[in-house]
TrEMBL record:
Identification of the protein by name: DNA helicase RecQ
Gene Ontology MF terms: DNA helicase activity; hydrolase activity
UniProt keyword list: ATP-binding, DNA damage, DNA recombination, DNA repair, DNA-binding, Helicase, Hydrolase, Isomerase, Metal-binding, Nucleotide-binding, Zinc
Residue ranges constituting the Helicase ATP-binding domain according to the UniProt record: 30-196
Protein family (similarity comment): Belongs to the helicase family. RecQ subfamily.
Keyword RNA-binding among UniProt keywords: no
Reaction catalysed by this enzyme: Couples ATP hydrolysis with the unwinding of duplex DNA by translocating in the 3'-5' direction
Domain Helicase C-terminal: from-to ranges: 217-370
Tree of life domain: Bacteria
E.C. code: 5.6.2.4
Cofactor entry: Mg(2+); Zn(2+)
Length: 517
């Protein structure tokens, strides 16, 4: 039986998709779905999520319903499936009603193996859903269901009823971005608490991670490009105006570059995008609107002209380079004035505090004094033990000292505070601050109170940020930014794991106090 299914999945992979082997985690995920078990699949962009529901859709009896928020991409995905001889359609509000009727008719007759539908349009299918065989529900971009995620879509909340309505139909939820708390929230919101979760590694070892001070960005970019020939790359900016300005600067220097942003007509955007895809315009200067779902494998570099507002977005955007597995270079320009601007953007937002906490983590990443990749992966809950050797810090490391004792004190304070307190309070306790909040909670009585009073507030703050970046501590973004101990913190506390800390130097302060250009 088992070998039989194996045989078929491999056959289907080859016959319909033309691939010889599975990418990491695909086979395990597919088998879980084929066993009718609920599944949460966390895979980085480019990890091959689509196959995880497309292949089971072919192997199982009935029609698979794919819920996807990206109406613009549905047609492309369906066309690709059709080109492989798979019967698929999509259903959303952008279609003329005649077309909608045809799709519904085919769906009802059970003629489709896959139907893509926008969450807003799902209620219109309700009648048919109850009358035909549904093989599985796939929920793409599943983080949209969590109000904790960075991309909440109210229409996703109704998906919580699917499991109650169809208890025997497997649900597979897929996303590329979800910190640990969001993952748990996805399972709760979808009422699939027993789902098996598969987390593919987020490591993209071929991406060089480079963070540079944001002074003279244009000059730095021109210098970088002068060594890059006609390579394809994307520069992300915060505003439409700066994309236009930078694109003309590059054009004036003889580069083939175009701006891309939401202010262009859809024809203009398509033209720019096509020219990028077929390499006639190798350089795109874009707002974050660019790149969602773009499958171009030979993007050789990505530059963030401005600070992204969180690590989730940053990771997705740099992830658009090097999808062919060959070396790609990413540069993040770090500027304090960007941070001030991004802080202003969050003002008045419903989840302002959460957004600020995420922004602060982004800033800490940019200020990291230890391997960037460890910091980046740690953010996604993945803890690697070796430095990567392929980031700016690994290439030119700062001076380190043995910070084991400091790390032990910090971790022990976090533990004694029951992982309930944020950075500020942990600092106060370690430094033995005699303030009202401390006394209110009786923290002056805990054992680590004042354990690091010999270290200045600022230095200690920087050391704790280093521990965050080394993945020894984590932040719970949804609950007041309280600090948590990661699995490696336990090694620090109980197994004598050595911790290296970098000396706090003056250079980083200069970046932090840089004036608006
Ligand atoms: P994601 O949705 O996770 O970003 P996709 O499903 O778009 O990823 O897949 C990314 C790329 O990998 C696509 O070009 C896809 O055709 C390709 N791909 C998927 N599975 C395999 C496989 N088993 N072998 C080779 N390439 C694959
Ligand atoms: Zn590194």
């Amino acid at each position: 039986m088992k070998t039989d299914t194996k045989h078929t999945t491999n056959d289907l992979l080859k016959t319909y998709f033309g691939y010889d082997r599975f990418l990491p985690n695909q086979e395990e995920i597919i088998n879980n779905v084929l066993n009718k078990k609920d599944t949460i699949a966390i895979m980085p962009t480019g990890g091959g999520k689509s196959l995880c529901f497309q292949l089971p859709a072919l192997a199982l009896e009935g029609t698979a319903v794919i819920i996807s928020p990206l109406i613009a991409l549905m047609k492309d995905q369906v066309d690709a499936l059709k080109a492989n001889g798979i019967s698929a359609s999509f259903f959303n509000s952008s279609q003329p009603s005649e077309e909608q009727q045809t799709v519904l008719k085919n769906f009802q007759k059970g003629e489709l193996k896959l139907l893509y539908v926008a969450p807003e349009s799902l209620p219109q299918l309700n009648f048919i859903l109850n009358s035909i065989k549904i093989s599985l529900f796939a929920i793409d971009e599943a983080h949209c269901i969590s109000s904790w995620g960075h991309d909440f879509r109210p229409a996703y909340t109704q998906l919580g009823n699917l499991k109650k309505q169809f208890p025997n139909t497997p649900i597979i939820a897929l996303t590329a971005t979800a910190d640990r708390a969001t993952r748990i929230d996805i399972a709760n919101q979808l009422s699939i608490p027993n789902a098996n979760t598969f987390i593919a590694s987020f490591d993209r070892p071929n991406l060089y991670l480079d963070v540079r001070p944001g002074q003279n960005r244009n000059k730095q970019i021109l210098n970088f490009l002068s060594k890059r020939g006609e390579q394809s790359g994307i520069i992300y900016c915060l505003s439409r105006k700066s994309t236009e300005k930078l694109a003309s600067t590059l054009k004036a220097k003889g580069y083939k570059a175009e701006a891309y942003h939401a202010g262009l007509t859809s024809e203009e955007r398509n033209t720019v995008q096509d020219a990028f895809l077929n390499d006639t315009t190798p350089i795109i200067v874009a707002t974050i609107a660019f790149g969602m779902g773009i499958d171009k494998s030979n993007v050789r570099w990505v530059i963030h002209y401005n600070m992204p507002k969180n690590i989730d977005g940053y990771y997705q955007e740099i992830g658009r380079s090097g999808r062919d597995g060959l070396a790609a270079h990413t540069i993040l320009f770090y500027s304090f004035s960007d941070i001030i601007m991004l802080r202003k953007f969050t003002e008045g937002a419903a989840n302002e505090e959460y957004q600020l906490a995420k922004l602060e983590r982004m800033q800490q990443y940019a200020e990291a004094l230890s391997c960037r990749r460890r910091a980046l992966l740690g953010y996604f809950g993945e803890h690697i033990t070796e430095d990567c050797g392929n980031c700016d810090i690994c290439k030119t490391p700062p001076k380190y000292f043995d910070g084991t004792l400091i790390a032990q004190k910090v971790c022990s304070a976090v533990a004694r505070l029951q992982e309930q307190e944020a950075l500020g309070m942990v600092l106060d306790v370690l430094r033995g601050s005699q303030n009202a909040q401390v006394f209110e909670k009786g923290y002056q009585n805990i054992k680590t109170f004042g354990a690091a009073k010999d270290i200045s507030w600022r230095d200690l703050q920087q050391y704790i940020i280093q521990l965050l970046n080394q993945g020894i501590l984590e932040i719970h973004f949804h609950e007041n930014g309280r600090l948590l101990l990661s699995p490696s913190a336990k090694k620090v506390l109980f197994e004598g794991k050595k911790v290296r800390l970098a000396h706090i130097n003056q250079e980083k302060n200069q970046v932090a106090s840089e004036k608006t250009p």
